[in-house]
Amino acid sequence: MRWLLNWLRRRSMERDLDRELSYHTDRRVSDLMAAGFSQQDARRQARLELGGWMQVQEEVRDVWLTRWLRDFIYDLRFSLRSFLRSPSFTITAVLSLAVGIGATTAIYSLVNQVLLSELPVRHPDRLVLVDWKGDQAANGFGSYNLMSYPICRDLQLQDRFFDGVLCRAATTVNLAIGEEPKPVGAELISGSYFSVLGVSPALGRLVDAADDERPGAGPVVVLAYDFWEAQLGGAADVVGRKVLINQSPMTIIGVAARGFRGIDVGQVPSIWIPASMSAQANPGFKDQLDRRTRWMQILASLRPGMTLTQAQAGLQPWFKGMLDEDTRRPEFPRITAERRQQFLSSSLTLTPAPQGHSVLQRSRTSQPLWVLFAATGVLLGLACLNVAGLFLARGSAREREFSTRLALGASRGRISRQTLTDATLLSVTGGLVGIALAPLVIKTLIAFLPRDTAANALTASIDLRLLLFTFPVSAAAGVVSGLAPAIRTSRGSLISPLRERAGATLRGARLRKAIVTLQIAFTLVLVIGAALFARTLAGLIAKGPGFATSSLVEFSIDPRRNGYSPVEASRLVRRIDSEIRATPGIDASALMRFQLLTGGSWNNPLTIQADKRITTDRDVHLNSVSPGFFSTLGIGLVAGRDFTERDSRPVGESGRRSAIVNEAFASRYLAGRNPIGLRIGEGSGPDVTADIEVVGVVKDISYRGIREESEQAYFPIFEGGDSGGSFYVKSRGNPESTFRLIREIVRKADPAMPVNALRTVDDQVNRSLNTERMLATLSGGFSTLALLLSLVGLYGVMSFVVTQRTREIGVRLALGATTGSAIWLVLRDAIMMIAAGAAIGLPCAGALGRLVESQLFGVTPTDPLTIAAATLLLTVAALGAALIPAYRASSVNPVDALRFD
Amino acid sequence: MANSNSAQTALDMLILTILSRRGASHGYGIANAIQEVSEEALRVEEGSLYPALHRMEEASWITAEWAVTENKRRARMYRINRAGTKQLEAEKEKWSTFSAGVARVLRMA
Amino acid sequence: MPSPRFPIPQGTLDMLILQILSLEPAHGYGVAQRLEQVSQSVVQVNQGSLYPALHRLEQKNWLRAEWKQSETGREAKFYSLTASGRKQLAEERNSWARLAGAVQLIFDEGGKS
Questions:
Q1: What is the tens place of the pLDDT at every residue in C99-108?
Q2: Do the Cβ atoms of A454 and A266 come closer than 8 Å?
């Protein structure tokens, strides 16, 4: 750091050196004069001895500051001065780079947080996800990589391979800390969870093996640090406090380490509860110890030195034995021989899980993020090209200055380095502006992600890791933008800029045209992508969910979480339902067990008893509804009848009497037959009895999301333990007053009952299209920016060409050429560039289109209309940008042009 | 600059001494001899040895010819000539004076 | 024209400067004069390398400098040895002894064969 000090006080150091050297010379002169020299001779002799004053100074300066550093600082000052002299160039270049770098940084931040960042645990690199490959012959609750709790316990004994195994399931519970209960995200965990991960408490203690020893053993709660700070003000006396989880009393035992947010960035828990309390956390759930109930994800920590492959291979013999043992258990379900075979040939797979287990990674969020990341990469490339073009343009103006410096003895390398310094200075400035912009973009992006789960785990803040990404990217952008001009400067001959200008400028123009051509190609790719995503979104909005959403409001309640028994719960739901329907201003109201358009569903294969018994070849999406549901949502009845009150069995009695299927189901499985009166059963095993009568057929609607067309079947609600549900309310008033009415009715029924997900169905439709909207909006934004950048580039190069050819155009005009032919002369160049750009861009767009095919709806990646429209848009915009200089060319006064030069 | 000049001069001197005492020798032999005779205190790198040999050949202090070595390989053998011997004497003289001067400064207390 | 002198190796120059300054503080001109006197004109520092050397040694914290009135009454920059400069001088003297010894060995070896 001494050099910095030296640089800062260089003025006083120079002054001192001057004094020191003049003292020396003066002393020498007086000594020499004393020895008999004349003053003149003495002076000359002293100077001679010192060996050139200037050279001594230079060498001493080298001691103060190494040569390259001095050169660099000099270059930097030179760059800075020349940038300040041409502010419009500087602003354009910095903004181009800031846009590219800011967008890339923002998307990278999300990619990093959602897909790449390792868990803040002791050995993230040793974590593996354990999954079952094959048929588990089990019921599932939840999504992705589900296993049963007993298997987790079995795996903990396999300590040759693992030094710890944990299991967990995400859920929502009603938590009451001294006041009315609120729904919060919770993670049900094995007792090994925190010790395997190596997470320590910030306060109190964490869940341990004793808490999870047997069902009901540990009525304890661990709070997440963020939740403790935000909801409890970080109170130190929170340990030991009593809380109610779904009305069951439990005790807070501690707070987990700061920064630890569970193992799933898509499902961030506020609290952790031992799996031993799963019956309390999921009211009605009795299957914690059932080997045939899949509801948890299992992560294991490999022993040090153990590889994933070794562990996976080593586990199989034990696993096969366990499968065999399972089939001999009395509670093992009756299944077909074929399925039994599939069960017995199952295996365990291990996959590295340093980032934990994430529903975001596995769901549809990850691919769109990569798509957008690629798009920003292209945008950044475009920005670099733009800056390179600007440099080349400025280069022609600076050539005289450079050749002067060359003539004064600067080396060619120094001049190239000056150009690179210019570019680096610009890109670092651009990077800084970009980083300043990035949090805004990140906030916008987070708003597009599933709000309830992901948004609270993702931050828009700029951390060191992000800077470690942005800084090299900026530097690389600088090198890329400065490279072409730098190479050109180093190749250019010393005299050419001073003597013959034509050769050099022609070469410059060719390079700049190549750059603009590439820009057009890049832009075309982005514009086509944006058009495809826009058409996808428009197509989905136009399609809609298949029912009338206007003036429809939805909400749900879950009485079981407030301590209700199933019978009490269904009574409460019915009471609220009839209250709502009796309220003036409400047109209709109906109940459904599982809310629509949330991405999830209840699904199972069905057995159909027609002329012969058949089972569906894939899962049918199931739901249960109250009478009047279809008419409330305006879903047409195609055949048969709607449910009536008589279809429901009395509360508490199990089994189903009747079902309604949709058209897709009827046409896939019952083609040609009259569905009404056929009998079906839930499940596909040989023990399934098909005794549920199909009483109606309804139009298809979207269940999980708008894209989906699926086979669906509906049962009457309040059968088989249904105890909560979603309400769909049609009203004449505005949504706000309906919300107020609903809250009032629920509060009257039970003041402690939380109202969940109260919103209009239109809002729910919008939420379900978040990913598509994110892709369409952002790719649209990116391609607009890209278009702007390449139009600036095109305009720049065309203006340059026109200036170069003023004389030629003037001569042609003087010889009688028409204005039109002059415009054509210039435009021809632009058309060539656009055509070449399209020739490069279209195949690239075609190739890249295949990669995003799964994100599209109602349009193929090579949709001719979309591609034609995008190409036309780009061509028109590009011709527009080229027309201005072309028109200027046509208005050249022949006489002036000839006098030019 | 003072550095490389003095290093060159010292190296030239060492090479000339070796050649004058041991007769013809190839580059590798010279490097070995310098190391061995100085009891490992001085080590000459190839990067400076061969340029020095060529420089001195240019200056006609030494002559070189191709010969077959003891292990049947062709090598360039260097030999000091009369001009070189004179140069060596002069340099040796200068070194003695210089080192004596330095010694006087170092004895000063 | 005097015959070209033996060029002083940089390390040796550093050592000589440190040695001169180990006795008493001096300005650049004084260092040059004293070197010439003591070595009986054998060591003549190229003035062009004296000042870069002084500044280099100062940067390395082996020397410290202050402006003081000189014997002529004018202000001059006086250099003096620091503690680490003293340590450095000891090391430089050691390596000079090794170099001089090695060169001497080579010259003497000639006599033996």
A1: 788 777 777 7
A2: yes
Residue B81 has which token pair?
């000539």
**A249 beta partners:** A244
Q: Which residues of C touch A (CB under 8 A)?
A: 27-29, 32, 46-49, 51-52, 55-56, 59, 67, 70, 72, 74-77
SS3 A248: strand
Give first-to-last CA distance, chain A, whole Å.
53
Strand residue runs (E) in A177-292:
182-189, 201-204, 220-223, 242-245, 248-256, 271-274
| Cβ contact, residue pair B99, C9, below 8 Å | no
Sign of the CA dihedral A669, A671, A676, A678? negative
Name residue A614's beta-bridge partners: A608
- Indicate if the pLDDT at residue A298 is higher than 70: yes
pLDDT over threshold 80, residue B17: yes
Which one of B2, B39, B108 has the shortest CB-CB distance to C7?
Answer: B2
| Residue A540 neighbours by CB under 8 Å, 6+ apart | A706, A707, A769, A772, A857, A858
Amino acid residing at A683: G
Q: Do C70 and A23 touch (CB under 8 A)?
A: yes
Q: Taking the mean position of all CA atoms in its chain, how far away is CA A750?
A: 40
- Cα(A64)–Cα(A84) distance, integer angstroms: 29
Q: Chain C: which residues have CB within 8 Å of chain B?
A: 5-10, 12-13, 15-16, 19-20, 23, 35, 38-40, 42-43, 46, 49, 93, 96, 98-103, 105-107, 109-110, 113
- The pLDDT of residue A309 is 93
Kindly state the tokens that stand for A855: 């994100």
C-beta atoms of C52 and A28 within 8 A: no
Q: How far apart are CA A717 and CA A666, in angstroms?
A: 21
Q: For residues A209 and A301, give the distance between their C-alpha atoms in angstroms, rounded to a whole number.
A: 16
Residue A56 to residue C48, Cβ atoms within 8 A: yes
| Residue A769 pLDDT greater than 80, yes or no | yes
Residue from the list C10, C42, C103 with its beta carbon closest to the beta carbon of B101:
C42
Among C20, C43, C102, whose Cβ lies nearest the Cβ of B101? C43
Query: What residues does A659 pair with on adjacent strands?
Result: A694
**pLDDT tens, residue by residue, C39-95:** 877 777 777 788 889 998 998 899 999 998 888 888 889 999 999 999 999 988 888
Query: How many other CB atoms sit within 10 Å of the CB of residue A103?
Result: 26
* 3-class DSSP assignment, residue C97: helix
Copy the structure tokens of residue A129: 């996800």
Nearest to B15 by CA among B26, B28, B30: B30
Model pLDDT, residue A211: 94
Mean pLDDT calculated for residue range A831-835: 92
Among A442-446, A765-769, C29-33, the least confident range: A442-446
For residue A278, the model assigns a pLDDT of 92
Mean pLDDT of chain A: 84
Tens digits of residue pLDDT in A349-391: 999 988 888 766 555 667 888 888 899 988 988 888 888 888 7
Contact A625, A642 (CB under 8 A): no
Which chains share 3+ C-beta pairs under 8 angstroms with A?
C
Q: Are A601 and A639 in contact (CB under 8 A)?
A: no
CB contact under 8 Å between C52 and A63, yes or no, is yes
